[in-house]
Write a structure and sequence with these properties.
This protein has one domain: 7,8-Dihydro-6-hydroxymethylpterin-pyrophosphokinase HPPK (Alpha-Beta Plaits), CATH 3.30.70. It is built from 4 helices and 12 strands. β1 and β2 form a beta hairpin. It binds adenosine-5'-triphosphate and 2-amino-6-hydroxymethyl-7,8-dihydro-3H-pteridin-4-one. 2-amino-6-hydroxymethyl-7,8-dihydro-3H-pteridin-4-one binds next to β6. This is 2-amino-4-hydroxy-6-hydroxymethyldihydropteridine diphosphokinase.
Length: 191
C-alpha cells in the first residue's frame, strides 16, 4: 500500500486546462497470450510509474475461462488495480492503451476479443460518467463479468459501480463459474 497524497489536492490537465479532483479509479487487467503473469506485472509497474497515479491495491490473480471469445481461446489471467488519480478519464484511457501497446497488444482487424498479451480496461473513475466515441464509464460490461467483480471484491468488499450497484451483490448474481483464484501466483504491488 502506498500513501495517497492529500485528498484535497486539485490538479490541472495541462492539455485542456480542466481541473480534476483526486478520484479513486479501478482498472481491470487481462492476458491470455504469451507470458500472462509477466504482462500483468508489467501493467502494474507501468501504472505505478505513471505521474498523477497512486496505486493503492492490487488484487489476487484469477485464472478465468474466456468469455465471448473465439472457440480456441486460451484461459485468461485477470486482476484489478485500484488507484487514486488526478488524471482525466481520457488520459487514463490513453495511458492504458499505451501500456497495452508496450506489452505487445495487437488488434487484428475483424476479430473482436482476439487473444491478447494485455488488456487494460478502465472500469470506474470515481463517479465520473462518460459516453462518447472513445470511452464509456462505468465500463458497460464490468457488472456482468465475474473476472472483474471477483478480484475487485477481494480488495474492496464494499465497492460500488456508480449507478449500477454493489460489486458484492453483482458478483452473487453473476456467480463464480469459470473464475478460479490462483493463490500460487502473485502480483507485486509494492515495487
Ligand atoms: N471503459 C473503457 N475502457 C477501455 N476501453 C474503452 C472503454 N470504453 C470504451 N472503450 C473503447 O473500447 C475500444 C476497444 O477496446 P478493446 O479492444 O480493449 O476492447 P476489449 O477489451 O477487447 O473488449 P471489452 O470492451 O468488451 O472489454 C477502445 O479503443 C476504447 O476506445
Ligand atoms: N475470461 C476473460 N474473458 C474475456 C476477457 C478477459 O479479460 N477475461 N476480456 C475480454 C475483452 O476484454 C473478453 N473475454
Amino acid at each position: 500500500m502506498t500513501e495517497s497524497p492529500n485528498p484535497n489536492i486539485i490538479d490541472t490537465d495541462t492539455l485542456t486546462g480542466e481541473m480534476h479532483p483526486i478520484r479513486r479509479a479501478v482498472v481491470s487487467l487481462g492476458s491470455n497470450l504469451g507470458d500472462r503473469l509477466a504482462s500483468l506485472q508489467g501493467a502494474v509497474d507501468s501504472l505505478k510509474d505513471t505521474p498523477e497515479v497512486w496505486v493503492t491495491d492490487v488484487s489476487p490473480v484469477y485464472e478465468t475461462e474466456p468469455v465471448d471469445s473465439p472457440e480456441d481461446a486460451e484461459p485468461y489471467l485477470n486482476a484489478v488495480v485500484l488507484f487514486d488519480t488526478t488524471l482525466s478519464v481520457h488520459r487514463l484511457l490513453d495511458r492504458g492503451q499505451a501500456i497495452e501497446a508496450a506489452f505487445g497488444r495487437e488488434r487484428p482487424e475483424g476479430q473482436p476479443n482476439a487473444p491478447r498479451t494485455l488488456d487494460v480496461d478502465l472500469i470506474v473513475c470515481g463517479d465520473r460518467r462518460a459516453d462518447d466515441d472513445l470511452l464509456t464509464l462505468p465500463h458497460p460490461r464490468a457488472h456482468e463479468r465475474a473476472f472483474v467483480l471477483a478480484p475487485w471484491a477481494d480488495v474492496e468488499p464494499d465497492a460500488e459501480i456508480p449507478g449500477v450497484g454493489a460489486v458484492a451483490t453483482l458478483l452473487e448474481q453473476v456467480g463464480r463459474d469459470g473464475v478460479t483464484r490462483r493463490d500460487d501466483l502473485d502480483l507485486d504491488g509494492t515495487s
